[in-house]
Each structure stands twice: as structure tokens, then as C-alpha cells.
User: Fold this.
Amino acid sequence: MTALTARLGDLPFRDLAPPALLVGLVVLVEVFAPGFVTRDTLLMVLSDTAVLFLLATAETFVILLGGIDLSIQAVASLASVIVAQLLPVIGPAAYLVAILAGLLSGLASGAVHVRLRVPSFVATLATGGVVAGLARGRAITIEEGGRFYTSWLNGTLWGAPVVVILSVVVGLAGFVVLRYTRFGRFSVAVGAGEPAAWAAGVNVDRTKITAFAASGTLAALAGVVLAARLSSGSPNLANQLMLPAIAAVIVGGTAITGGLGNVGRTAVGALIIAIVRIGMTFVGVNIFAENVVFGAMLIAAVAVTIDRAKIAIIK
Assistant:
């Protein structure tokens, strides 16, 4: 048993297992529902994955530190409400207001976590509650005048949905930031060992606040896309997406204890979650079984990727 655990936890397995699982799921769905692997269906899967990927990328920045952000669904929902309310009034500037609100929310979470030394799950849960309160009210439909400004997000460019292109751009930017910038290197260092990062001269507090700010900003961007796609905003619009977003990060191979992972892994994880969700619909599995499947996948992924030497210091 010990040998099996060690074998599951080594780096090659973490690298190869998620892509192999993704390919296996696609083949499995095609076997049970022939016709799944078509251009139109795959573009639909990619489009449906866009919001999930944006939320999962937001979560990646924080999980890489060894923390977690439980406010992403509230931030995304608030952004959708802001867009629905302001788009008919101030046009595209509503997008900037919504994203700025996400940035401020992320900065608030980071400040509470760093300055008050509150664990990240408590800090973000509290921030999420405040944000949810700010978004209070009923669902708001984007009127015809506002839909004029959302049509580009629902359109295509070079034969691909704009939301997919946007996700690719965000994914590439996130990959470059985490792989080639000082902030990215510092994030990995903090996640791998905070005391060692302090000793090496890393400004841990600033790195954490920056990560939470990035998380809030991307969560708001996800809310903007969601509002544009559904032509509405609601305080509860993204409530069902937090568990799949966290699952996408962990299933993709990013360790919940931090120090290992990147946006590329998250992209694979988001596609796995999307294939499971859409595949179950194709095969005819009850939609209420989705959260059961996501929960089971999350448990299995954590068991494989967790660094047991750092269990006692999960932040």
C-alpha cells in the first residue's frame, strides 16, 4: 500500500494522469454516445468550459500558495449583477466597473488574510459573504439596449467562439505570469515552504495579496462572461460553480498544499470537469448526480496530489 501511494504521488504520474484521463473520458463518452466527437460538439464543450476555466484559473493563483479562495462564486455573481445593471446605462464601461469590483474584493481578501493573520478559507468565506450581500436582490435581465454590447462576446472570431479565444488569451497570460515572472516564482516558493521563502528574501505578504487580487479579478471576468452569455445577472448566478472550479484545479494536478501546479494543468482539469458534466448528459445520467461525481473526483485528486509532509500547515 505504501509503495502504491508513493507511486501515485510522484511527479510523472501527476503530469501524465490528467491528460490520460481526459483522453479516456472523451473515448468513453464517444463509445456510449456516438457522435460526441464532432467539431460542433467540441466547440460547444470549449464554450461551456470558458467560465469554469476562468474561475479555476482564479483559484489556481491562491491554491498554488497553499491557500484557497471561497469567494470566487460570490465575486462572479456580483460582477454579473453590476454588468446587468450598468450595461444599458454606461455601455462597455460596465465591464471595467465589474472587473474593478472583483479586484477590490480580492485585495480585501488578501488584506484580511495577511494583515489579520486569518486563514485563507475563513478570510475568503467572510469576504464572499460581504460580496454576496452587496449583490443582494433579484435576477436582472439585460435589456435590448444592453445586449448590443454583449453580442461580441457571444459571437465568433476566425471560426471560434469569442469566449474560447478569451479563455485562451487569459490562460496563456496566466501561464506566462506563473512560469516566467518573479511573482510566479515567488508564488511557487511560498507554496513550497513559507518559512524558506521568508528566509530567501521573498516578500510573502505582497505575493499573497497579489495572488488574491488576481483571483478576484479573474472571478469577476468570469462573471462578466457568464452575464453576457445568459443575458442576465443574479446574486446566485455562479453559486454552483465553486466546487467544479476547485475540482478542476486539483484534478488538473495542482497540489492542494501548494508549491506545484500551473494554468496548463488547470486547463486540462477544467476540460475533464466539462467532459464529465456534458458527457453525463449525452449518456443520460441524472443531472443531480453531477455534484456527487465532482465530490468523488475531488477526493480522489486530493488523495493523489497532496503532499502529506505539509498536511499540518495547510493554510
About this structure: The domain at 2-313 is CATH 1.10.3470 (ABC transporter involved in vitamin B12 uptake, BtuC).
